[in-house]
Design goal:
59% helix; Four Helix Bundle (Hemerythrin (Met), subunit A); 4% strand; mainly alpha; 179 residues
Amino acid sequence: MPTPTLRELLGELDRAHAYTKGLHAGLTHDQIAWRPSSESSGIGWHLGHQSAVAHYMLRNLTAAEPRIAPELEALMDSATLETDRGSLPPIDHILEYRTLVAERIHFRIGQIDNGAVGAPNQLRLIAKNLLTAIINHEYQHSKWIEELRTDTFGLDALAPPISPWLSIIDGYVMLVSDH
């Protein structure tokens, strides 16, 4: 099977986001904010973290665009100790941030795919690797969201997404574009 195109990878990112959305859909604010201890992260943190990392990588590897929400990004940085992460903002704020980051990814990757950047061939290669990493990171944290959803709250697991480029590795959905 050939390596996916940038457009196909954007479709895979949308599939990953839809899977994550299904995992948190219908959860209460208390479930999304719940942490078993001050040294653990709640579902809301994982939702924000996925996007904070994606936007950080996008803006540092492809274009120097400004941060979207510096205060949220600092809270969602995995380098911030769990005990120092404080209270999460309302879930609507986190979901709005996720939407904005997804829009920025689509815009920037679209520019790269259309050759509307300097060094378009170099950036296409970076963009493919970047999208693969972002997609796999989304699924990594979705696995942990699913574990909280099922193990802690007793809710049903969702069927994993299906795509020719997705595999299950060590229990994690992974985009493996070279198989």
